[in-house]
Amino acid sequence: MESNAVRQRARIDPTGRYTVQFHFDTAAGGGAKASRPVRMAQPHAGPGYGMHFPVKPGTEVLLGFIDGDPDRPIILGAIPNESAPSPVTASNARVNQIRTVSGIVVELDDYV
What we know:
CATH 2.40.50.230, 3-stranded mixed β-sheet, two-stranded antiparallel sheet, 28% strand, globular, Gp5/Vgr_OB, Vgr_OB-fold_dom_sf, Gp5/Type VI secretion system Vgr protein OB-fold domain-containing protein
């Protein structure tokens, strides 16, 4: 994800789209070489309602392409990795969890 250095948040345009930098794009220029605006799939969306958990700069995302068209990318989801691990691991595998960057946690324990 590309960022706005002043606020350290991912760059989001007025319609909620992001710019991404591809791992294979090794040219100098950073943001100047970023993608066109890319929408992010959401679990709930419609006219005047929906939900959106903004991703942070440096988040690794999975892209898909509508009808296989490389000019129509869409963010399918955020991918945990070594530098940004999943909040649910082997140590707490029975919980369902939402954890915000400020530390707010919503946790559902499915212990049966």
